[in-house]
Amino acid sequence: MAVTVETLEKLERKMTLTLPVNVIQSEVDSRLKRLARTVKMDGFRPGKVPMTVVAQRYGYSVHYEVMNDKVGEAFAQAANEAKLRVAGQPRITEKESAPEGEMAFDAVFEVYPEVKIGDLAAAEVDKLSAEVTDAAIDKTLDILRKQRRSFAQRSLTDGAQDGDRVTVDFEGKIDGETFQGGKAEDFQFLVGEGQMLKEFEAAVRGMKSGESKTFPLAFPADYHGQDVAGKQADFLVTVKKVEAAHLPEVNEALAKSLGIADATVDGLRADIKKNLEREVKFRLLGRNKQAVMDALVAKAELDLPKSSVQAELDRMIESARADLKQRGIKDADKAPIPDDIFRPQAERRVRLGLVVAELVRSNDLQAKPEQVKAHVEELAASYEKPTDVIRWYFSDTRRLAEVEAIVIENNVTDFVLAKAKVTAKDIAFDDLMGQQG
Q1: Residue 150 and residue 436: Cα distance in Å, rounded?
Q2: Structural domains in the chain plus CATH codes
Q3: Binning pLDDT at 50, 70 and 90, where does residue 436 land?
Q4: Whole-number Å distance between alpha carbons of 150 and 354
Q5: Tens of pLDDT along 338-354?
Q6: Contact (Cβ atoms closer than 8 angstroms) between residue 411 and residue 365
């Protein structure tokens, strides 16, 4: 088999393959003979169909299969011998002219690029740190208390206040017509917690049990109910019950109800702090990892294989369609989604993947078994039965592969941080956790 390789542009290559016709025909004959032993056709007993009939019926499809297989094998062998790292699938076309007794094919494909990573010592990275403060523990305690609150009916003369649970009947109309989802009886919500639109909450706030009120409500343009988004409605609401919330005291009884081993207030606060510190650690790792990846991409020079970008685009579009389908969008699988929406993100992912792979390969940053084990144990530590969680991870190669990928990213992050110009920066706990206000 003779092979020539030429560069078309950047990462694109063209390889010309030639295969003897007799090799193709020999394999076609062999497969047709095997097929003839089992094929069932009307008028013939199994295994007794004449070869001419089998060849007439199946010859084209078998020939096509053999061509695909043989050319694929020839391409893989030639690429291996030429030490080419092929990206994506080759586009193979048969050439019209070929030496006598041979068939010739052109295979156009891309190769993975050479990745040049600049001087990491010149890279600038902000490394964030955050502390779990007493205020953060207090805020978490308040959330835990709210989750365990009880309600008692207010007197008939008391109006609804923020934090109260109200039971209402309501009916909304647009242009005098009731709309879907605009009517309910014995509907409960907590005032002041954003469960309802602001105008609705404002109307109910201060109302007493047994009172009714009509009020206008303008639905936002981006409201999830598309039929009413951006429209004005008139609502009639009747308050049937107003209940005041009672939050449990921060005491040993609360600690015990939360299953804290050391059922004291100090033990409860220590347990909250431990859990928050674990969450802070993971979030800081994520933010610092992102900063390192940004610095890496900025320091790298490489051409992107179009096939890899297209494959990533296809994955992202498929994921977007699945998301639309989950939200109940009709014909989501046919939704027109232009490549341009995701192209910058797809290109970044491919670029980052190639840069990280090169850094891992050239600096031996692969995930070590003991690192994977330690990471799984850390993930399992927050669960009630850590050993069951550890067993769950190690029982599935895909789950372990996900952990290995995280460990590799952590190794890359540590490697870059050890070389780069690092500026330590404190970040407020609320900013890190996204709990502003």
Answers
A1: 27
A2: 3-109 (3.30.70.1050), 150-246 (3.10.50.40), 255-433 (1.10.3120)
A3: very low
A4: 55
A5: 888 899 999 999 999 99
A6: yes
